[in-house]
Amino acid sequence: MTAASTDNCRVRVVCIGETMVMFGPPPHELIEYCSHFVALLGGAEANVAIGLERLGMHAGWVGKLPQNALGRKLVNETRSFGVDTSAVVWSETGRVGTFFVEWGAAPRPLVTIYDRAGSAATTLAADELDWDYLLSAEWVVLTGITPALSDTCRATTLEIACRARQAGVRVAFDMNYRSLLWSRDEARKAYRALLPHVDLLVATEPDVEIVLGKHLERRDALRALADCCGAQVIAMTLGAEGALGYECGAFHQVPGYDVQCVNRLGAGDAFLAGLIYGFSQWNLRRGLAYGIAMAALKMTVPQNIPLINRVDVERLVAGRNSNVIR
Asked: What is the pLDDT of residue 2?
């Protein structure tokens, strides 16, 4: 095997977090009156790993799953997209978390019902991880979902960030606040413990307000956030307006796209994948551009997974948007 082929096989990014089985009724039907559901892959960190694979950046996903048919289903499906799953932690006990999504239609909101309490993922301890595997990567990706799952996961997330940073592995952290999992005060405390150990931080405007405990104008908010964390780079997602980045005192803004939205779930995960790819290859501005293009394209497909064609992403980044390709 040549040096080039070995490098292509190397896992450059490791994404760590819970993946669940997502049950969805047919589009826009009500769960209460639905008689059949489709089972899909559901997990922010796995979405990021798949998005990176779609862009050509080899990624691994690590989580804890029970050694049963549902656990194997999740691993098999994740692996089918090229993601490395060799460091998954298997358990003889516990359960797979599940959730149900009821697709909304304005003015009726999209509704999520979680059934994940006590899943195997909530018991993931630091000493169960393959640290050689984690610390051989260029990046470790964490989200604010994992520390919300349990005290054990909160401690594990913090230890991963600390040890990765000490070993020279860059840490990407998406705050990804989930109000159904914990309170704003609990999240603020956990975020403030984690942020000194983060290299690349992604947050929405409401996420930033949680950390700061107050509302500030966007650029002032990013400056204040930079003062209280160790991140060299911060990206604030702005919905349809695009994204605002901050690095070494300089701001970079990238506009959004007009999108015919089919499913917005997973758009933030697609953004993070594009951001890491573009930032690693070039710079923050290019990372923001790839992130926004990935998020926009993700919203045009029904799955939560960013089943995006790299050529389409590069076409958008290059400004070659088109309604018809023939």
From this structure: 39
Domain membership of residue 71 (yes or no) is yes
Whichever domain contains 131, its CATH number is: 3.40.1190.20
Q: What is the pLDDT of residue 5?
A: 37
Answer yes or no: is 65 within a domain: yes
Please pick, among 84, 174, 199, 269, the residue that the annotation labels catalytic. Answer: 269
The pLDDT confidence band at residue 27, using thresholds 50, 70 and 90, is confident
132 catalytically annotated: no
On whether the pTM is more than 0.70, the answer is: yes
| For range 281-294, the mean pLDDT | 98
Q: How many domains does the chain have?
A: 1
Please give the residue range of the domain that contains residue 53. 3-317
SS3 of the chain: CCHHHHHHHCCCEEEECCCEEEEECCCCCCHHHCCCCEEEEECHHHHHHHHHHHHCCCEEEECEEECCHHHHHHHHHHHCCCCECCCCEEECCCCCCEEEEECCECCECCEEEEECCCCHHHHCCHHHCCHHHHHCCCEEEEECCHHHHCHHHHHHHHHHHHHHHHCCCEEEEECCCCCCCCCHHHHHHHHHHHHHHCCEEEEEHHHHHHHHCCCCCHHHHHHHHHHCCCCCEEEEECHHHCEEEEECCEEEEECCCCCCCCCCCCHHHHHHHHHHHHHHHCCHHHHHHHHHHHHHHHCCCCCCCCCCCHHHHHHHHCCCCCCCCC
